[in-house]
Amino acid sequence: MTPNITIRKEIPKDHNWVIELTAKAFETMPFSEGDEDKLVARLRNAPGFIPELSLVAELDGLIVGHILFTPLVIDNGQQQFESLVLGPVSVLPEFQKQGIGGKLIRTGHQKAVELGFRSVILIGHPEYYPRFGYKPSSTWGIKTHYELPSDDVFMAVELTDGALKNVSGMVIFPPEFGE
Ligand SMILES: CC(C)(COP(=O)(O)OP(=O)(O)OC[C@H]1O[C@@H](n2cnc3c(N)ncnc32)[C@H](O)[C@@H]1OP(=O)(O)O)[C@@H](O)C(=O)NCCC(=O)NCCS
């Protein structure tokens, strides 16, 4: 059951708490390299940063979750296709498994469509994201230079029908994600 959560655009006065929240969310994750909070800070200063795609989940005045989408390019050598990368997404540990992450993702998808984006790419839990329509990026021949533990963690979703039809190539992640 989703509690009475408001999803809204992040504003500057949220910045410090969102960094803390991100650290808290990832702190106990075995896969975490412990720098997701710094990644949020870097992405906020990235040239492509879109404030409308940095969203917080608020419950009774407390921000309990955050999600960020940043533009990227898929390059097939002849053409470049614009897309987004989802991440990080964070929910405070004591508020997880109540549908807040799902609400952030769905609302983020809607905002992205309103802004004209048609797809999203991510690296994440293969058990979690398929419920939001994500499939392995290999479905479309979309590739990454990153060395990943398995193929199924690299996923993409079409936000509009057929958005990735005829799209393939190498994902050029924003440099803020690192090598
Ligand atoms: C991932 C995260 C954002 C999900 O937020 P949430 O509010 O707990 O998610 P929801 O309530 O919408 O969905 C809960 C479901 O997600 C699943 N889930 C949560 N974390 C998961 C994980 N690490 N791996 C697989 N599934 C996960 C839960 O098991 C639950 O599944 P169920 O519905 O089948 O019981 C949150 O757990 C979190 O902040 N985790 C730590 C940071 C993180 O891992 N971020 C994502 C990196 S890819």
Structure description:
The chain has helices spanning 15-26, 36-44, 100-114, and strands at residues 6-9, 54-59, 62-75, 80-91, 119-123, 135-136, 142-143, 154-158, 169-172. Helix 1 packs antiparallel against helix 2 (36-44). A hairpin with a 2-residue loop joins strand 2 and strand 3 (62-75). The chain has a single domain (6-173), classed as Aminopeptidase. Strands 1, 2, 3, 4, 5, 6, 7, 8 and 9 form a nine-stranded mixed beta sheet that branches. It has three helices and nine strands, in the order E-H-H-E-E-E-H-E-E-E-E-E. With 179 residues, the chain is an alpha+beta fold. It is globular. Coenzyme A binds at residues 25-26, 29, 89-91, 96-102, 124-125, 127-128.
Give a short synopsis of this structure.
The protein has 179 residues and is an alpha+beta fold. Helices cover 20% and strands 30% of the residues. It has one domain (6-173): Gcn5-related N-acetyltransferase (GNAT) (Aminopeptidase, 3-Layer(aba) Sandwich).
At CATH level 3, the topology is Aminopeptidase
Q: Could you tell me the mean pLDDT?
A: 96
| Separation of the first and last Cα atoms | 39 Å
Overall helicity: 10-25%
Structure annotation, total helices: 3
Instruction: Kindly estimate the percentage of residues that lie in beta strands according to DSSP.
Output: 25-35%
CATH architecture call: 3-Layer(aba) Sandwich
Cα-atom radius of gyration: 16 Å
Q: Which CATH first-tier class would you pick? A: Alpha Beta
Number of strands: 9
What molecules are bound to this protein? coenzyme A
Largest sheet descriptor = 9 strands, mixed
Please name the fourth-level CATH homologous superfamily.
Gcn5-related N-acetyltransferase (GNAT)
Uncertain runs are none
Order of helices and strands, N to C?
EHHEEEHEEEEE
Q: What global shape is seen?
A: globular
Total domain count: 1
Label the structural class: alpha+beta
